[in-house]
Amino acid sequence: MFSFKSIVFTILFLLPIVLNVVYLIHRRMTQKRYTNKVQKPGMFVTFFKRVMIAVTIICALFSVLGSLINELEMAIVFAVVMLICLLITVGIQRKYDITYQETDEYFILTVKGNEYKVFYDDIAHWQWGTGEIFVQEKGWEEGQYTAVSCILFRPEILITRIAEMTFAGKFKRVDGVYPDESVYPNDSTREKELIRMMKKQRYYYLIEDKVNDGR
Fold first, then answer.
1. Residue 22: its pLDDT value, please?
2. What residues does each domain of the chain span?
C-alpha cells in the first residue's frame, strides 16, 4: 500500500507544517507573560515540550499504521522514536516543574510542589551565578541558598529590591569570595559587582536611571 520511504518523505514534508501550526497556537496562548502574577518557565521551554508531545502522538499514529499495513520496520522505527520523545517530554516536565511569584514584600518559588517563601527584608546575602541569582535568608546556614532563575523568569522586583538594599550598604563584601581585590577593587558594599552583573544579565535597565542620577 505505502512504502516505508514514501511514508518517511511524507513525514518530512508534513513535520514543518505541524511545527508551524503548534508554534502559532502556542504564540496565541502565551501572549501574556504572567497568569495572576505567577510566572512559569518561558516560551521556549513550553513550546519545545508541546512540540515533543505532538511528535510523540504523530509517531504513535504512524507506528500503529505500520502494524496495520504489515510494515514491521516502520512500526518499530516509529515506536522507538515515540519512546524517546516520550522520555524527553517527561524529563522536561520534571525538570521545569517550577513557578515563581513576586510581590512588593516577598517572592514565592515553587519547585516540584515544594514552596519557598522569602521576604526581601530578610535577605542577608546574595550571589549572582550563571543565569541565576542566589539569596540567603537571615538565620540560614552557610551555603544554604534559594536560587531564582533569571532566564526562565523575570524577577524584576527581587532584583530591584536587592539593588536598593545594596546601594543602602546592607550587603557587605564577604572575605574569601574572590581570590584578590583585582576582581572588584574598592567595592566593600558590592555596588560595582551588582552593576556589572546586572549589565551582564541584561537587568541594568532596572537601575539605570538611579545610576545616571549620580548613584
1. 58
2. 4-96, 101-212
